[in-house]
């Protein structure tokens, strides 16, 4: 994972580590470990952050420099409908 990417986007949005930790339901101390690369952030938390920041998981992981999210897939929309039922 791109170690600096989580910190960069957090600071760009004017959020503290504590703010983001609350969003992903963890402690500030644990989030700090994710941000500096001591521990890997779980995939489900990356997905929450991508949605929160309105970007792609690939951007957060450092696989692309494009901040814009990908278009939502039809499969994703169908999955949401099934989960809600």
Description:
- This protein is mainly alpha-helical and 85 residues long.
- It has one domain: 434 Repressor (Amino-terminal Domain), CATH 1.10.260.
- The longest helix has 11 residues.
- The mean pLDDT is 86.
Set down the secondary structure blueprint.
Blueprint: H1 3-12, H2 17-23, H3 28-36, H4 43-53, H5 57-61, H6 74-84
Helix pairs in contact: 2-3
Order of helices and strands: HHHHHH
- What's the CATH architecture? Orthogonal Bundle
Q: Unreliable runs, pLDDT <50, ≥5 residues?
A: none
Distance between the termini: 35 Å
Summing up helix and strand content along with how strands pair, one would put the structural category as mainly alpha
- CATH classification class: Mainly Alpha
Number of strands: 0
| CATH homologous superfamily annotation | lambda repressor-like DNA-binding domains
Number of helices: 6
Classify the helix fraction into a percent range. 55-70%
Q: Which strand-content bin applies to the residues?
A: under 5%
Mean pLDDT: 86
CATH topology: 434 Repressor (Amino-terminal Domain)
């Amino acid at each position: 994972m791109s170690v600096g990417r989580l910190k960069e986007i957090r600071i760009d949005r004017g959020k503290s580590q504590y703010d983001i930790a609350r969003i992903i339901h963890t402690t500030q101390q644990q989030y700090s470990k994710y941000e500096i690369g001591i521990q890997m952030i779980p995939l489900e938390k990356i997905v929450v952050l991508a949605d929160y920041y309105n970007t792609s998981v690939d951007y957060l992981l450092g696989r692309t420099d494009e901040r814009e999210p990908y278009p939502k897939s039809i499969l994703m929309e169908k999955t949401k409908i099934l989960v809600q039922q």
